[in-house]
Each structure stands twice: as C-alpha cells, then as structure tokens.
Amino acid sequence: MSKEGRYARQTLIPGWNQKKLNKSTVIIVGVGAIGSYVSTILASSGVKNLILIDFDTIEISNLNRQLLFRDGDIGKSKSEIAAMRLSELNPDINITFHHKKMQDLSISIYKKADVIIACLDTFIGRRWINSLAVKINKPLILGGMFAFLGDVQVVLPKKTACFDCQPLVAERELAQACTPFGEEREKDREEKEDEAKLPSVATLSAIIGGIMAQEALKLLLEIGKPIKNYLFYDGLHNATTIIELVRRKKDCPTCGELYELEQVEFVVNKDNTVKELLIQLGLQFGLESPDIMIKGKILPHDSKIQELGIKNNMKVFVMDKNLASPIKLKLKIE
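Above: the chain sequence. Below: its structure as tokens.
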C-alpha cells in the first residue's frame, strides 16, 4: 500500500501550499449541477471548511448531472445529502450545511468565508449574492450555463467589475431555472406554471464547475492570475473567450463610488405618487419590487411625494429582494 498522503500529488505543484487550504473556508451557494462538481473538487483538494447553502430538494431530473445524488435521495435536502457524500469522500475536512434560503442566513456566516462561490440558476439570486459579497468585501466566483454554453465571472470587490456593473449580464428571460424546482422552492414561488426551464448537460456542469473550483484554489493559494474577470465557453465549438472587464461602473448601484459616497441625486416630481417613483427606480436600477425607506419607515405606495413632507437632499434607502443591502440616494424634489 502506498505511503503517499492524500494530497501528495498536488503538493508537487510549484507554489502549492497545502497549509493554506488547511486554514481556508469556502462557502458554496447552490449544490446542484455546477455546485456538485465545485464542492467535490474542493473537498478532494483538502479545503478545510466547506459551508454548503441550498434550500432546494432533489428531483429525478437532477440525477443526470448532479453527481452527489442518487435515486434514493429524491425528495431529500440537497445541502444535507451533499454534505454527507462529501464527508465520505474526505473525512479530514469540516462540512456544514444550511437547508435555508441564502437570504435567511446571518451575515456572520458569510463573513467566515475566504471565498464565496455562487452556483445559482437565477438572475435574482446572482444579483443578491453579488451585492452581499461586495458589501462584506469577499471574493466571489459566479458561474452559469445554457445547453453547451457556459460562463464564469470572478468578482474582486472594489477592484473589478461586479455582476451588476459589468456589461455582459444575461437578459432576464435567459436567467430562468435550469431544472424543475424541488418541493421547497415550489412553495416559495408565486408563479409555478410559467417557469421556463433551461437546457443543460452534464459536460458543461463539469467544465464550468471545474473552472470555478480552479479559480477558488488560485485565490486561496495566491498563485497564478484570476480571470479578469469574465470567461465565456462555447462547448459546441470548443472555444473559450476571456474578456477583461477593467472598469467598474462609477454609478453601479452595488459597487459604484458615487453610491458609496452617497452623492447621487435622484430627481423626483412632487406630484408623483410613491408607486410612480418606485417604477422609475425599478427601471433605472433593474429592481424587482423596490420599497423606499425614510427615517426607518417604509413609504406607502399610494401616497403622493408632496404629502409625505420629503425635502430636497433628504437621504432615502431603496430596498429590493435583488439586493443584499439598500441603495442610498438623495432626492431632489421638483
């Protein structure tokens, strides 16, 4: 029997430092198709602490590309079963799971991470985790796929374009879930019948998941160069394109310097209702169902601006389920 250790071959790589991985913590949000491969690679590589977040349950359509699950797992928690299988794969690491929506977890959990990896299949989910990662200044790796097409983005807060300010975000109609929702997600959705399903294949799950895990290892080990910061992969033509997104958008609602300094004015007609203002904000910032809070109170939608005693340069907070933290604005009344 070989006396080589579990990590003997990877420690032969120049610049590899297994001690760094032995002290590292990675959060993986979504352990479905891509997340299964990401978590398997990082567990095998010896990342000491893996935190899995997924509130979905296992469906039969998951089994052809979500390698951690079996027929007997149908109906069970993805995060719990994934944690069990990964523990069997490498009993030397610590794996915790949260069968909850990522929005329901304490921010203190996310602050433990050295890297956050988002393997999410909705546009709304990616926007939310992006805004959280920027808020707590944690490196974020995002990935997605559509049939034989895949993409990976590395977000280094305050250094690179984030998901909201980069110009390559997919159209909303392309950001639907790629599989039928499990029982928990079905309960959470208002519209069940109209949910479009994206085509997906196991090979892309493995390729994109492998690239994302590799980017995470590079960040943890501080070796090589991270993607700067968007990679597009075309599996049908075996073509890879890396697009360097050098500039952050100054007026990005998530990481832009203007919002950080709270210097942005938003022009408001005093005769408009709050509802009309919310429509403007939704169009401006791509929000789903925004609300406005002033001095700790949510403004009623049917009230007129002039009736609420709002004054010029008054600070307001715009909240939305797409964002982990509010957008800060100063209103200019006309």
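Residues 26 and 53 are 11 Å apart (CA to CA).
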